[in-house]
Amino acid sequence: MTQPLVELRLWRQFIAVAEELHFGRAALRLHMTQPPLTQAIAHLEQLLGVRLFERTKRSVQLTTAGEALLPEARELLARALALPAQARSAAHGEVGRLRLAFVSTVGFGLLPQWVRAFRTLYPQVEFELVEATGDVQLQALERGDIDAGFMLHSPGFAPEGLQHLRIAREPLVVALPEHHALATARSLSFGPLLHEALVIFPRRILPSLHDAIFGMYHAAGRTPRIAQEAIQMQTIVNLVSAGLGLAWVPESVRQFQRPGVVYRQVPGRKAQAVPGCETTLVWPHPANPTRDRFIEFARGRLALGH
Question: Residue 21: left (phi > 0), alpha (psi -120 to 50), or beta?
């Protein structure tokens, strides 16, 4: 059986009569005459199959059904009135869901600050944050599982076919076991470091930076001696702490203060420089209001140096 469609106009008229408990005053409030209002309430009762008011010549009172419906009707009208503003907010990216992936280095400082600031500005945006390496992010972007991602790569090697915004550029530093002889050396040079065992991420997850690190060794006539591979930067640092070898990590990883690990900068030379790396926010081309609002926010933060 088809359910009756009750127009908002009828609910508005019901609320007016319920609040005034007088058809004449309710009609004046609604800028209409009394007979059409009386007919409208009778029509609403017919649609619902229940009486909403008890009427006498001297009084109008809500029935039990009318009393139960009054708060629901008020909420229905309030929600209906809010719909245009909600639609505009959604179109402007001020409400919705943002599925954002990030590499672990962004999670050390930048990401929490930005998410907190963005949620303060747009509290109706819901974040879905996923930590993922670059290769996983690219697959997720292709499937449409995420809206944007913070990726790490060598300078100038942002993924092709995606829009991107450079977030940060930083040098690599060497992470050494705390008790290693080189950890307390007054100055570091490439030679001794390149003889040490290396803890590094697999090439598949960050090929451009993996190749840059290997290129640094090859330029010195060395082949890296891989002691262990690990995916996450935290895990790499933990393995350094265990004494398995040294690691070349982005400078931002210094914020991960793992006991047993010392971070050192290595002065570069023209002939043999330590590679740098970039963090980039990447996203596909089709428009997405909520994601585009976040990208606008990111541009603003970068312009302010935040």
Answer: left
Q: Do domains 8-91 and 96-162+278-303 have the same CATH topology?
A: no
8-91 folds as Arc Repressor Mutant, subunit A (1.10.10)
Q: Which residues contact 62 (CB under 8 A, 6 or more apart)?
A: 18, 21, 52, 53, 54, 70
Would you give the DSSP letter of residue 27?
Answer: H
In angstroms, the CA 253 to CA 173 distance is 9
Domain 96-162+278-303: which CATH number of 3.40.190.10, 3.30.230.70, 3.30.450.20, 3.10.20.90: 3.40.190.10
Residue linked to tokens 């530093």: 173
The domain segmentation of the chain, as residue ranges, is 8-91, 96-162+278-303, 168-276
pLDDT number for residue 211: 96
Closest by Cα among 272, 137, 248 to 198: 248
Is residue 41 within 8 Å of residue 17, measured between CB atoms? yes
In this predicted structure, the answer to whether residue 171 has a pLDDT above a threshold of 70 is yes
Q: Which residues, listed in sequence order, are joined to residue 170 by a DSSP beta bridge? A: 277
Per-residue pLDDT at 270 exceeds 60:
no
Whether this model's pTM surpasses 0.85: no
What's the pLDDT tens digit per position in 64-83?
A: 999 999 999 998 888 877 66
pLDDT tens digits for 218-227?
A: 988 999 999 9
**1: pLDDT strictly greater than 60:** no
CATH topology of domain 168-276: D-Maltodextrin-Binding Protein; domain 2 (3.40.190)
